[in-house]
């Protein structure tokens, strides 16, 4: 399946706007599952991230060594805003980001490489808008909807493919930046469901699509929709729908160390 990141971002943006249109004033002010952030703070983060692409704030995101702290700064400056201001900023700047992403996808600039803080180096076409699709997906479904007891918006194979693509790119950078001495053999990651697939996580930090069966290697198998939850440490992988087989010590160490932000 061809991955269309722009279409995925367009659908995630529409899902967030539709969800926000139904929120009550008390729900806007309710605590989210993101520590220290209310629901409106999460939306403020998404809007500020889109706006930053068009301002000098982008330099901070590209060069920071603490992306979590860098994300907190614009949220803190918006805490006194009314939720309607937060939503208006998001709608305006996410629309501009969508148009910019569409232009990038059709230009040679998509193949250029850029850093995104300590997350490492990526092609521009992957960052814009792949990182935003992942951010929208996890924040909307797992930090907002779950926290206020609202039904989580649906997704599709196209969006999940982009989410997984971004997460594996970050994981590969993490493994290459600090090669774990204990990862002495490849591990097969199988994510079943729409947008899933099979990948080989190799000792050198590369992650490659596996053609068919991964072969006789240690393996992790789980639903693609739960991958963004346990791989970001929102829940412990032991309580998720994961099945592991093969070298238990290796797999446990890998899963315990995995924290994709």
Automatic annotation (TrEMBL):
<dbReference type="InterPro" id="IPR017517">
    <property type="entry name" value="Maleyloyr_isom"/>
</dbReference>
<dbReference type="InterPro" id="IPR024344">
    <property type="entry name" value="MDMPI_metal-binding"/>
</dbReference>
<protein>
    <recommendedName>
        <fullName>Mycothiol-dependent maleylpyruvate isomerase metal-binding domain-containing protein</fullName>
    </recommendedName>
</protein>
<dbReference type="GO" id="GO:0046872">
    <property type="term" value="F:metal ion binding"/>
</dbReference>
<dbReference type="InterPro" id="IPR034660">
    <property type="entry name" value="DinB/YfiT-like"/>
</dbReference>
<dbReference type="Pfam" id="PF11716">
    <property type="entry name" value="MDMPI_N"/>
</dbReference>
<feature type="domain" description="Mycothiol-dependent maleylpyruvate isomerase metal-binding">
    <location>
        <begin position="10"/>
        <end position="99"/>
    </location>
</feature>
């Amino acid at each position: 399946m061809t991955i269309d990141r722009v279409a995925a971002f367009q659908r995630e943006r529409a899902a967030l706007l539709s969800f926000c249109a139904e929120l009550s004033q008390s729900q806007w002010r309710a605590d989210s599952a993101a520590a220290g952030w209310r629901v409106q703070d999460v939306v403020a983060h998404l809007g500020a991230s889109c706006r930053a692409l068009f301002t000098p704030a982008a330099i901070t995101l590209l060069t920071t060594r603490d992306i979590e702290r860098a994300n907190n700064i614009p949220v803190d400056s918006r805490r006194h805003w009314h939720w309607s201001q937060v939503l208006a900023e998001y709608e305006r700047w996410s629309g501009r980001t969508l148009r910019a992403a569409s232009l990038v996808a059709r230009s040679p600039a998509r193949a250029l490489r850029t850093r995104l803080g300590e997350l490492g180096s990526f092609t521009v076409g992957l960052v814009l808008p792949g990182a935003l699709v992942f951010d929208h997906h996890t924040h909307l479904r797992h930090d907002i909807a779950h926290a206020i007891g609202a039904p989580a918006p649906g997704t599709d194979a196209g969006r999940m493919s982009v989410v997984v693509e971004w997460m594996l790119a970050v994981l590969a950078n993490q493994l290459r930046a600090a090669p774990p001495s204990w990862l002495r053999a490849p591990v097969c990651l199988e994510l079943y469901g729409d947008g899933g697939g099979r990948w080989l996580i190799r000792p050198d930090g590369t992650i490659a699509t596996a053609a068919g069966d991964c072969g006789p290697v240690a393996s992790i198998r789980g639903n693609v929709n739960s991958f963004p939850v346990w791989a970001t440490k929102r829940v412990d992988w032991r309580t998720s729908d994961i099945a592991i087989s093969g070298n238990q010590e290796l797999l446990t160490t890998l899963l315990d160390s995995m924290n994709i932000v």
